[in-house]
Amino acid sequence: MPSVxxxxxxxxxxxxxAQCKPIGWExxxxxxxxxxxLALAVGNITxxxxxxxxxxxHVAILYFQGNGGSLPPRLPALSAVLKALQRNASxxxxxxxxxxSYRGFWTSRGRPSERGIxxxxxxxxxxxxxxxxxxxxxxxxxxxxxxxxxxxxxxxAAAALSARRGAATHTRNTRQEPIPxxxxxxxxxxxxxxxxxxxxxxxxxxxxYRYLGPFLRNxxxxxxxxxxxADSSTTTPRVLILQAENDxxxxxxxxxxxxxxxxxxxxxxxxxxxxxxLHTDVAAKAQGRSEIVSFLARFG
Length: 300
Hints:
The chain has eight helices and eight strands. The protein has 300 residues and is α/β, with parallel strands linked by helices. Strands 1-2-4-3-5-6-7-8 form an eight-stranded mixed beta sheet, with helices on both faces.
């Protein structure tokens, strides 16, 4: 819902500058493989502790939002995460968050669809690993963070990148640049799939909604993406599932099922329940922010 709430597409980064300081956010423009122009919000911070003897590191966090609103109102919460990371990181480590505005959202062009957003994610990963990392000239660790439907986007993107890595390994083209792997997958208030949500929200067999699965245009099947991710690589990312205790949209059973799926697939996953959190305020809660920061700090 790119235009919900009203005027969300006219939001400005500058309207949130005071809440984000000292993090400075920039709007960047990229193009997808099918020629759609997208907007990104990019923020960086370098650790404040003395240099270590290790080389310079870059932790790139690609953020996939939920399906309502735009990126600017989310920047204060993302800035709070970066500021917390700065306090505990050495000066040789840089953290970046790249927020992706899907096609049709905020100032991005085009109309949203599952296939199109998949192309958006691929273009954002390419920007993050190539242009952004090259400008910093650091060794980069890639983490994907998705909230709500964004968790489905993040997992699908991780599976697609892993499949590319597998295909490149089999071809053994020494002239091809190595394809990086996703080191971490942060799933905030995720659901198993759109179809699973239909039957969860409408369990009554006499209601028609639970039978609409075959007619869905978008599926965002996180369960299937996790299976593809596990099948395509022997080196899978760490997974953190954040469940909102008082989630008014996604039942907690969805996060619990995803944790069980990860366990069945032998993925390194853990689930944390954020006390008193609603669907969209996990990162705004002190416990939620602490869990996010602790997870991201592992890659620095």
